[in-house]
Structures are given as C-alpha cells and as structure tokens.
From TrEMBL:
Keywords: ATP-binding, Kinase, Nucleotide-binding, Selenium, Transferase. InterPro entries: PurM-like_C_dom (IPR010918), PurM-like_C_sf (IPR036676), PurM-like_N (IPR016188), PurM-like_N_sf (IPR036921), SPS/SelD (IPR004536). It comes from Phlebotomus papatasi. This is PurM-like C-terminal domain-containing protein. Residues 2-99 form the PurM-like N-terminal domain. One of its GO terms (biological process) is selenocysteine biosynthetic process.
C-alpha cells in the first residue's frame, strides 16, 4: 500500500494519508503542477477515498534558478497544483519553498474517513477481473519528446521511423493522461463493489501488481491478457531495445491509472460508466486466479496490445 490507513481511537474514524513528490519531467510548469497533484492524490484514491480534507504542497526551488526564473516558474507550478486541487474539490496550503540543488514537487494528502469510505486493498478473489484506468507508456512518451528537442542519440534512432508530429502527439497524450485525476475511478470502485486496487506509478504495472498481491487475504495469481499502451510507445520501445521491459509491465510510469480487482459481472459496467463519466477508456486487462503462492504473469504469446 502506498497510503497509510490509521484507525483513530474515537468516533470510528480513520486517517488515510499519503506523501509523494518527484522531479519535473515536462517543461510546462502549469501542467507539471497538475501532474504532481494527480500523482500525489492517486495513492489515496486507490483506497476508494474520494474526499481530500487537507493537502499541503511540497516544493523546492533549485539554487541555480535566477531570480527571474524563480519568480516566474515557481508560481506557475503552484498554480497548476492548485488548479488540479480545485478540480478535486479541496484546498491547498503551500509549505515553505525550500532552496536546494533540485526542483522537487509534490505534496501530502490527508482524509478523515468513516469505514464505508475506504476500500482496503486486501479482498481480491478468484474469479475477479482486473481493470486498468489509464494506458501505459508515460515515461517513454515524455522522454522521447525531450530527446527530440535535445537532438539526443536516442532521437537519432527514433527519427528514422517516427516523425516529429508522431512524437508530439504521443507526448500530449501522455501529459493529458498523467494530469487526469483518478477520483472518478475511486467513486466507481464503491458503486461496483471493488475488492482491491493500487495505482500504477514508479514500479510499473508488474511491480505494483506484485505488491498488491502481497496484501491479499487469499493466495492469488494475476494473469494479464491485455496491455493498453499510448500510441507509438511500443514502436519507440522496439526501436530502442526496450520492448521486452514494456511488455513485461516493468516500464516506469508517472501518475498512472488504478489497477482494480472487480467482480467479473461488474467490470463491463464499470468501464462503460467510467467512459460516460470521464470520456476516457478503462480496460479489462486480466483475471484473478487461485494460486499456491502470490504470482503475476503477462501472457507472452497471446497478450492483446491496444494502441491508445
């Protein structure tokens, strides 16, 4: 679990809290602020909690910034973070802006919850299906764009097969995906009786799925038969010799979707209502089976790959 769920001694309440921060990965400070908020809040949304009662922004300014760079970029990062918070329906307090060698952005999200507001990520069962609410490939999509701008060695390989427009299109899809909140998915988890969930971020699909398996009350196997991947990312991975890692679910993600274990008869309705509510797709990507030990497998020969 990436969030702490702490029962309180009074009023049958619990604190759900998460702290997350990272380094900027795109050059638009407003969008970067939105992504930082979405990434931070995602850990809480993965527990089914949809209301954030307190959010504190964490931000540090690089000591190499000029005064003008600081006065322009930091307020834009804060604006993007606050814009996303407004979309989430919560207020933000900004802690002191530290100065160090790195630009760091993130925050702390806290919610005070009744038991019914929390879906503990422990009750996946044989016969469930696995739903993913965002496509994979964000890290490579953003890296390729910056390689293109910098004329890096990797871009020299990519440009033999992809146009600059291809890379820009892929980059924009990744940015919009990363900035999209997992709040609607958390809301629908309650309606459709989700049994467990995790968000997919720095450890990739496989890393977060394996971690989720460790918390289950039953001994289970997650079998993945479908991988939705941002358009052009698989081609990029193949050109650069990274396809095996991508298709093994090991590629690093930033502000990815929720991986949710749902009753089989609820999953299609979840995906349909998610599309109606957000105008984005969610995909049934796998199944939950009984196992003698926690295990995760992606079908090698018959895995369906979806360009998103």
């Amino acid at each position: 679990m990436d969030s702490a769920v702490i029962p309180l001694e009074r009023h049958n309440l619990s604190i759900v809290q998460s702290v997350d921060f990272f380094y900027p990965l795109i050059d638009d400070p407003i969008m970067m602020g939105k992504i930082a908020f979405a990434n931070m809040a995602s850990d809480v949304y993965a527990t089914g909690v949809v209301t954030l009662d307190k959010v504190t922004m964490i931000c540090s300014c690089p000591d190499k910034f000029s005064e003008k760079e600081r006065d322009v970029i930091i307020p834009l990062l804060i604006r993007g973070f606050k814009n996303a918070a407004q979309e989430a329906g919560c207020q933000v307090s900004v802690g002191g802006i530290a100065v160090n060698p790195w630009c760091i952005l993130g925050g702390e999200a806290t919610s005070i919850c009744t038991p019914g507001e929390i879906i503990l990520p422990i009750n996946a069962s044989p016969g469930d299906v696995l739903v993913l609410t965002k496509p994979l490939g964000t890290q490579l999509a953003t890296n390729a764009y910056h390689w293109m701008l910098d004329g890096a060695e990797s871009w020299q390989k990519l440009k033999e097969h992809l146009t600059e427009d291809d890379v820009r299109k892929t980059y924009l899809k990744a940015v919009n995906s990363m900035a999209f909140l997992n709040k609607s998915a958390a809301e629908l988890m309650h309606k459709h009786s989700a049994h467990a969930a995790t968000d997919v971020t720095g450890f990739g699909l496989s890393g977060h799925a394996i971690n989720l398996l460790k918390f289950q009350t039953k001994t289970l196997k997650f079998l993945i038969h479908t991988l939705p991947i941002i358009e052009n990312v698989q081609r990029m991975a193949k050109i650069l010799g990274r396809e095996q890692k991508l298709l093994a679910g090991e590629a690093v993600e930033t502000s990815g979707g929720l991986l949710i274990a749902l009753p089989k008869d609820s999953a299609n309705n979840f995906c349909r209502e998610f599309k109606d509510k957000t105008f984005n797709d969610a995909w049934i990507i796998g199944s939950v089976e009984s196992s003698t030990s926690p295990s995760f497998e992606i079908l090698k020969e018959d895995c369906k790959l979806i360009d998103v």
